[in-house]
Amino acid sequence: MKASRTKRMRILAVSGASIATLALIAGCSSDSTDDDSTAAPESSTATEAESGSGETVVIGFSGPAADHGWLGAINSAAIAEGEKYDDVELKVSEGTNDANLQISQIETFINDGVDAIVLLPTDGAALTEAATKAMAAGIPVINVDREFSSTDASRVTILGDNYGMGVSAGTYVCGQLSDNPDAVVAEIAGIDSLPLTQDRSAGFADALAECGLNVDARVAADFTIAGGQEVTEQLLSANPKIDAIWNHDDDQGIGVLAAIDQAGRDEFFMVGGAGSLNAMNAIKADDSVLKATVIYPSTQAADGIALARLVAQGGNMPGLASAGIPVRIVLDAPVVTKDNVEDYLSIGFES
Known about the structure:
single chain, 351 residues, alpha/beta, Rossmann fold, 2 domains, six-stranded parallel β-sheet, six-stranded mixed β-sheet, 9 helices, 35% helix
């Protein structure tokens, strides 16, 4: 993966479920444009026609078990989005991390004859066949966050930008350490076996390379508080001098910060990931090593609900000159700092 890839543009930059702000080329991938906008999110700007009073559609939603702050926010935001529209009937399945149970949920939606399905699969490959069956039955599927293994399994795919998260974090670190070519940079990853973690690490390394830095020390946790604390204790013990740390996940970041406090270390700054409310409040207070976090939108499924409504009603994407709805949307990964944190507090999620 070449460093020049960090120059690419994401398809669009949205945080929150404001479909009226979606505004780039339909049907393209995240590598198709040339602008790295990190504009702050806007409040919902849907017109009266876009907020309801159209033909009533039934949308089935199947999401993850809420065993993590970000995942809980995914589910609650999706439900809240469905409640915004008087022409949407939202059928919500119980959150699950069981692929077989989720397959049965999709089969139930098919049997019920829903108008669209929004699905954040516990395992994209495992849910591909069930989603393909829904599409074959004439039910459009909106695939959220974890991709299916076939493009035939969804009408729209909406994703966070994991590689872009790494790029954003690395670019921020470069901006702070550009006058220190010997800076020691550490990374606290999530679960190393997951492609999303691998993508985040790749983007971080590529961005650091552009300013002559590299990852000098790296540990991987498991997206939990306890895991974050344990690996950070190991990291700090093995590295008496650090200049910057990127922690992939703000939920595990609670444990990361606890370990840092217990060790009495403050010679470095830290960048978080995902955009939790507690992380944003810490950035706003400016009283810890945490100085920034990179957004990974917890509103992806909410955007999926809004898109499913438009697809089911045969609508167009507001803000686009082209007719119809994009087939692939990659959301932006902006950096939240003390200077712009007020703009993002409304989309921070509880850890």
